[in-house]
Structure formats: structure tokens, C-alpha cells
Amino acid sequence: CHHITGECSCAPGWTGHDCKHPCSSGRWGRGCANSCACDGSDGGCDPATGACSCEPGFTGQRCQ
């Protein structure tokens, strides 16, 4: 936490005042600032790394 403001600096994939909330679906990274870029998936990706979680029958970095 910041020594003056008390604001938490959350790890990538986490958000909220106490960093206990994962990024919402479709978002990832520090502050959940990035959008998932996955084609053949459920629209979700790893909240920390942005790696796509492909649906059955799809492969590749973006599930294309």
C-alpha cells in the first residue's frame, strides 16, 4: 500500500480497495486495464497474463 494515501497497488489480475477482487471477464493486467484479445473463446482470458482460454475445437495464441 502507498505509505501516504493507503491505496493498494494490486498485482496484475486483481482490483479493488483491498485487491481481493479478480478482474471482470474480458479484462486483464495491472488495474484490469487491458481487454482480452481472444477470437474463438468464451471472451475470457487469464486475468493476470491475458492468455486466452480457448473453447473446445480452438487453438492458438488467440484461439483463432
Automatic annotation (TrEMBL):
<feature type="disulfide bond">
    <location>
        <begin position="10"/>
        <end position="19"/>
    </location>
</feature>
<feature type="disulfide bond">
    <location>
        <begin position="54"/>
        <end position="63"/>
    </location>
</feature>
<keyword id="KW-1015">Disulfide bond</keyword>
<dbReference type="GO" id="GO:0005044">
    <property type="term" value="F:scavenger receptor activity"/>
</dbReference>
<feature type="domain" description="Laminin EGF-like">
    <location>
        <begin position="36"/>
        <end position="64"/>
    </location>
</feature>
<keyword id="KW-0245">EGF-like domain</keyword>
<feature type="domain" description="EGF-like">
    <location>
        <begin position="1"/>
        <end position="20"/>
    </location>
</feature>
<dbReference type="InterPro" id="IPR042635">
    <property type="entry name" value="MEGF10/SREC1/2-like"/>
</dbReference>
<protein>
    <submittedName>
        <fullName>MEG10 protein</fullName>
    </submittedName>
</protein>
<dbReference type="InterPro" id="IPR000742">
    <property type="entry name" value="EGF"/>
</dbReference>
<keyword id="KW-0424">Laminin EGF-like domain</keyword>
<dbReference type="InterPro" id="IPR002049">
    <property type="entry name" value="LE_dom"/>
</dbReference>
<dbReference type="Pfam" id="PF00053">
    <property type="entry name" value="EGF_laminin"/>
</dbReference>
